[in-house]
Structures are given as structure tokens and as C-alpha cells.
Amino acid sequence: MIQTMPFYLPVQKEIEIFEHAAKNKLPILLKGPTGTGKSRFVEFMAHTLKRKLITISCHEETSSTDLIGRFIIKGAETLWLDGPLTTAAKQGAIIYLDEVAEARPDVIVAIHSLTDHRRELFIDKLGETFKAHDDFMLVASFNPGYQRGYKELKPSTRQRFIAVTFTYPEAKFEAEILISESGVDEETAKRLVSIGNKIRNLKELG
């Protein structure tokens, strides 16, 4: 569990939406480009709700086995080792799948039954299905076409989630965040925000 309250500056009603989703056992999808505060927001909410947070940074090699679990050899024994998704579902933690669209397709298949009314996880290697803990919450994020080369989520997957869109904060708020996080003075923060906005507005970097 996150011990220290992470600094987070609310922009819209994302806190209320997250609390509603948690109360009603609904999955939530955070959409927006890199650097808009999605991961920090999840850390902030995990601390606020006093729940353990398990974060997985998804990439093109992330598979359902990585999330659900696998058999391992220990001495003369073959043991089952729960993956982070299974652990979160059993313990009632928040699991955050960062950039979930980058993972292999079998990851999306694996989480489907956790994102609807069933709230259950099937472990095919054990032939077992179990209900998720009441406090379990699945949070995912993805970058919907903001950067060239990023994958998209299918509509059939997106509609399973409550969606929250993140954008870059207004300059005055971004400067406030910089001051809080880095300790720079106000003038330096304003200059850095100005430079950042100019870079974001470039169509191509190179």
C-alpha cells in the first residue's frame, strides 16, 4: 500500500468518477497521451481508497501468462506461482495495466470476465475459475492514437470500462505541478511549461 499521499491536482471530476467506479465494482479506462498524469492519478486514488496497488507496464511481449501465473520448478517440485492479476483479484487490490493496448491480444481475452458482471478469473492452466475479491478493481490506460505507432483498443473492449479522458493541464496548473514535484521557482516552472507546450505542438520530432 502506498504510504505517502502522492501529489495530484484534480483537473475535472476524475476523482468522483473513480470513487463511483470503485464503489460499484466497475473497471475504469484512462485515456490520454504520455505525461498527462494517468499513473500518478491511480497512485493518488489507491492511497485515498487505502488499497494496495499493483502496476504492470504493458509492452508487446506482455502475455496472459505474465499476468495470471505459471508453474515453476523448485527443487524436485512443480509449484504454481500466481501472477499479479491473480494476486490482485484474490487480495482485493487495484491492478493498473498501463498501456494495455500494447500487450498481446490474449491479455485482453484474459481480463474480459473481470470487466463484466461476472468479475471472475479463469486460470486455464489449473482449470479453475474464482470470483474476484469485493475490493478488487481493474484500471487500464492507453494512448488512443496520440502518438504514431500506438495500438488501439477495440470498441468491444472499450465499452466494458468507464472511460476518463486525460489531457495536458492548463499552463498555470502544470506550473503548479512542476513547483510541487521539483521545487523549482515559479519563473523557471513557467518557462519549462512553455517549452513543453511548444514541443507537444510539433507534428514530428527528430
Structure write-up:
This protein has 206 residues and is of the alpha/beta class. The chain folds into two domains: 14-167, Rossmann fold (3-Layer(aba) Sandwich); 169-206. Helix content is 35%, strand content 21%. The protein is built from eight helices and nine strands. The protein has helices at residues 14-23, 38-49, 64-68, 84-91, 105-111, 155-158, 171-182, 186-200, and strands spanning 28-31, 53-57, 69-74, 77-82, 94-98, 120-123, 128-131, 137-142, 162-165. The strands form three sheets. It has a five-stranded parallel beta sheet with strand order 2-5-8-1-9, sandwiched between helices. It has a two-stranded antiparallel sheet with strand order 3-4. Strand 3 and strand 4 form a beta hairpin. Helix 7 packs across helix 8 (186-200). It is elongated and about 60 Å long. The protein starts with 13 loop residues before the first helix and ends in a 6-residue tail after the last helix. The mean pLDDT is 90.
In the CATH scheme, the class of the largest domain would be Alpha Beta
Tell me the overall shape: elongated
Please indicate the count of domains.
2
Share of residues in strands = 15-25%
Q: Would you identify the regions where 5 or more consecutive residues have pLDDT less than 50?
A: none
Mean pLDDT: 90
| Annotation, overall tally of beta strands | 9
List the helices and strands and how they pair.
Blueprint (H helix, E strand, L loop, with lengths): L13 H10 L4 E4 L6 H12 L3 E5 L6 H5 E6 L2 E6 L1 H8 L2 E5 L6 H7 L8 E4 L4 E4 L5 E6 L12 H4 L3 E4 L5 H12 L3 H15 L6
Parallel strand pairs: 1-8, 1-9, 2-5, 5-8
Antiparallel strand pairs: 3-4, 6-7
Helix pairs in contact: 7-8
